[in-house]
Amino acid sequence: MAEAAGTVQRLRDIRGFLTFWTASTVSGFGSYVTALAIQVLVVITLHQGAFGVGVVNASRWLPYLLFGLVAGVLVDRSRRRPLLVTTDLVRGALLVAVPLLALTHHLTIGVLTAFMVVFGLMSLFHDAAAQSFLPRLVPAGQLTAANARLDQSDAVAQTSGPALAGGLVSLLTAPWAVLVDAASYLVSGLLLLRIRIAEPAPRPIRLPGMASEAAEGLRWMYRHPTLRPLAISTHGWFLCSAVGGAVLPPFALRTLGLSAFGLGIALAVGGIGGLLGSLAATRLGARFGAGPVVIACRAATAAAWALAAVSTDRWTGWVVFGAGQLLLGISMGAENANEMGYWQTATPDNLQGRVNATRRSINRAMVVVGAPLGGAVGDLIGLRAMLWAAAAGILLAAFGLTLTGFRHARHGDTRPSASWA
After folding, report:
1. What is residue 355's three-state secondary structure?
2. Is the separation of the CB atoms in 226 and 420 below 8 Å?
């Protein structure tokens, strides 16, 4: 378990955190390579439009919708480190299949979609376990700083990963670039094996009681006075971001005329913004509180999508597009550590798995709905119009939070909901 709050002053002194941080950085680096490679593969190699991008994006998150509540119960009843190791190794093995399928000419949009469903199932368990494992590794008072460190390394990966991906895709083609991510997951899993931590013994899994346990996490989250509005606003944020994310690759590659390398550079600029935002996240949260920081960052995210919408196919338009990616990175980098730190400190350890899996499952359900819907409507009425729709929806989600008690939320505020017994 994590050392008692106040006994550790520096994150680097916390046993196991540096290894966890390194593993997260390595896998995150590879993930940004695959994120771009898969999108280019769908648009260029498989000759699909925004709808195809949306379907593949949604397939990765479909397991969150189908199995999210069950995953949360299993995580709360299991030791979390072995789950992290197993899911990393399985994901690494799965990614090796992409170039093999391409080499044998069996890679189709249907096969890729099915592959991403299995990959997403492994990611579901890994993400729920990772977010629930960190509070066992790090004291509560250090969680915001720990999440900021994870975000900083993720931002560095985002800065270099897409640019490298663009080069690898141009040099090797998209399917083979995915091998970089496969190697990163294998390395991450081996690193996590080195962490030594005493976790509570796993509890027996009783199928008849799983539904009631899943419902307990659901009720707790939606009865909490500040987590409830935050969760609902975040659901809306994911829906709108999925709409924008489905149309952004074909918009950049076809409407703006960017190459795969050019798109990688633009996304790398977003990584620079993410690093800047995450570097300021801890200070912003301490100065203004989690609530005001999250709300302001979501408004800035809406502005970033608006900048993408006004971009043109001239070099000045590419600059505007890049500026939008920079602003998007800054806003998300500053927001995430504050949002995650607040979630983790406000949620009891025995509910971490269920609450993390539940909210992530519903968030990803928004992707499952929003990505193909946004892609289909974008192909019908125009990609630029859907970027404007994404910007407007995220702005509405930010405004809604200002009308709730979450606008006063600060780190360390762990009071339970008055309606929770």
Report:
1. helix
2. no
3 state DSSP class of 207: helix
Domain span including residue 364: 11-198+206-408
For 266-290, the pLDDT digits (tens) are 877 887 888 888 889 889 988 999 9
CA distance 13 to 9: 8
Query: What's the rounded Cα separation, in Å, for the pair 37 and 46?
Result: 12
Q: Which of 203, 200, 202, 201 is nearest to 1 (CA)?
A: 200
Residue 45 is classified by DSSP as: I
8: pLDDT confidence band, cut at 50, 70 and 90?
very low
- Separation CA 257–CA 396 (nearest Å): 31
Say if CB 73 and CB 353 are below 8 A apart: yes
Q: What is the pTM of this model?
A: 0.65
- Residue 55: name the closest of 360, 361, 369, 305 by CA: 369
* Tokens, residue 421: 């017994």
The half-sphere exposure of 368 on its side-chain side, counting CA atoms within 13 A, is 18
DSSP letter for 406, please. G
228 within domain boundaries: yes
CATH number at residue 360: 1.20.1250.20
CA pair distance 64, 100, nearest whole angstrom: 27
Q: Radius of gyration (Cα) for the chain, nearest Å?
A: 20
Number of structural domains found in the chain: 1
